[in-house]
Amino acid sequence: MNTVGSRLGWAVRDGWTITRRDLTHLANQPWQLVVSLLFPIMMVLMFGYLLGGAMTVPGGGDYREFLLPGMFGLTMVFGLERTLIAISTDASKGVTDRFRSMPMSGSAVVLGRCAADLLDSVVVLAILAGCGLLMGWDWHRGLDQAALAFGLLLWLRFAMLWVGIYLGLMLPGPEMVMAAQILVWPFGFLSSTFASPDTMPGWLGAVVEWNPLSATVSAARELFGNPGVGGDSWAAANALPLALAWPLLLTAIFFPLSVRRYRRLSR
């Protein structure tokens, strides 16, 4: 009987098959994990040790403790590039078309890709947190608050996954990936990752405060008990609700778009 439950179970089973396939590819190409970690570690070292002495945190506090939650969030956003490249490469090589010719759920490929990249992001975030602990960063409000902060970071990554999947399915080929990657950088750097919006011109600070990445980073700093929390604006005072709402909105938009785009490929 073709019930909603049976269709859901079919999608989950097929999605897990694709997840295992993508995880196997990652295991066979460990350099991808190394490359994804090199950038945030280099940025932390550069800003934390080379430039950190000239950086001030509004309200006082250690700049490296201010920086680390921002780098966690920035890494979750920049993970979009890996998703985009993987989806675009599969589509250009005909792998996606072969999947579509099989008797499998229409959403399994995008669900499987999402699950694999999210698991990869858990590993990346754990390694970055370990590096942060070695550098002197720490959380100060208990393990439960820290777990919630890490959950918010992965929640942002989950939303950005669907943006990456949709863009990867929309691009005509891997050669256009670079153009899409360029758009990620303004989104990542126009945030409170490296500096507080209070130190910026008024109009720029307002843009930064309403960036979804800034909301997640500010909420993570608050939950970790790290410096740089607070502000006079509504966005600064409600970082936690915004950190929940922004990824939910992005997921609500790009998840159905991704599934629909996948089903319409080659039509």
UniProtKB/TrEMBL annotation:
Species of provenance: Thermocatellispora tengchongensis
Keyword hit for Chloroplast: no
Record's subcellular location: Cell membrane; Membrane
Sequence intervals crossing the membrane: 30-51, 66-87, 108-135, 147-169, 176-195, 234-257
Record's GO cellular component terms: ATP-binding cassette (ABC) transporter complex
Membrane topology: Multi-pass membrane protein
GO biological process: response to antibiotic
Assigned protein family: Belongs to the ABC-2 integral membrane protein family.
UniProt GO MF annotations: ABC-type transporter activity
InterPro entries associated with the record: ABC2_TM (IPR013525), ABC2_TM_bact-type (IPR047817), ABC_2_transport (IPR000412), Nod_factor_ABC_transporter (IPR051784)
Domain (ABC transmembrane type-2) ranges: 31-265
Protein name: Transport permease protein
Domain of life: Bacteria
Keyword presence, Membrane: yes
Keywords carried by this UniProt record: Antibiotic resistance, Cell membrane, Membrane, Transmembrane, Transmembrane helix, Transport
